[in-house]
Amino acid sequence: MASGVKPRVKVPKKASADDVITIKTLISHKMESGQRKDGDGNVIPRSIINRFVADFNGENVIDVTLEPAISTNPYFQFDATVPETGEFHFTWYDDDGDVYETKKKITVS
Amino acid sequence: MELSRRKLLALGASSIALMGLGTSVAFASKADEAIAKFTGGAAAGEGTLELTAPEIAENGNTVPIEVNAPGAVSVTVLADGNPVPNVATFNFGKLNASRSASTRIRLSKTQNVIAVAKMEDGSFQMAKANVKVTIGGCGG
């Protein structure tokens, strides 16, 4: 599924140095588990996002391995420490080889 | 040999009990296998690892869960009653101070959700939560 995939990320625009901020991410994806059957009894092949990575200025924040038991439209919430002004880089890896990316800037004062 | 009613009943009951035992052992071993793969066979004790999950989930398609594991390097989440027990593995980086994350998972039926954390010193911790599921989420 390469169509209609839209990543959405919520990161505060400003923070103080070494603040712990909360990040929320959601990507629209049907996450076909490979367990379901269609009307004729054939198994619908698995098609999921299998990995999600969040980096800040090249430093890793979180790296998640996803299995078919993750719900449709995978949602993640986690904390991050921001030592300086920079950019968050979010990457999702699809089973079909597609990579979805989004970036968010944050100003640290 | 003539089967009396009493013998027949006893036979039926024991075979049902055997069947029940067989399925539960099979499920437990699947999840245990996944845990052993993650820990490399090391025993997992209790500790600071917290797993937050609802007691009752009306819809098994989206069950919100949260792991809170101070001092953990990575946390894997398993569901022992799903066709595939593995749910997700969180690897925390340097900038993730609180070592916590939340997501939404699928549960096919009422079961235990298990979190296993690998700590910075190489030890393992485990936390369990039982979730009652009203409508299963694996679409079988």
Explain what the structure shows.
The complex is a heterodimer of chains A (109) and B (140). Chain A contains no helices and 8 strands. In chain A, the strands form 2 sheets. Chain A has a 5-stranded mixed β-sheet with strand order 2-8-7-4-5, with no helix packed on it. In chain A, strands 1-3-6 form a 3-stranded antiparallel β-sheet, with no helix packed on it. By secondary structure, chain A is an all-beta fold. Chain B contains 1 helix and 9 strands; from the N terminus they run H-E-E-E-E-E-E-E-E-E. In chain B, strands 1, 3, 5, 6, 8 and 9 form a 6-stranded mixed β-sheet that branches. A 3-stranded antiparallel β-sheet of chain B has the order 2-4-7, with no helix packed on it. In chain B, strand 8 and strand 9 (124-135) form a beta hairpin. Chain B is globular. Chains A and B meet through strand 4, strand 5 and strand 6 of A and strand 6 and strand 7 of B.
The beta-strand count of chain B equals 9
Derived from helix and strand composition plus strand pairing, the structural class of chain B reads alpha+beta
Oligomer kind: heterodimer
Please provide the ordered H/E string of secondary-structure elements of chain B: HEEEEEEEEE
Distance between the termini of chain A: 41 Å
The Rg value of chain B, from CA coordinates, equals 19 Å
Shape of chain B: globular
Uncertain parts of chain A: none
Largest sheet of chain B: 6 strands, mixed
Terminal residue distance of chain B: 44 Å
Tell me, briefly, the overall form of chain A. Answer: elongated
Strand percentage of chain A = over 45%
Total DSSP helices of chain B: 1
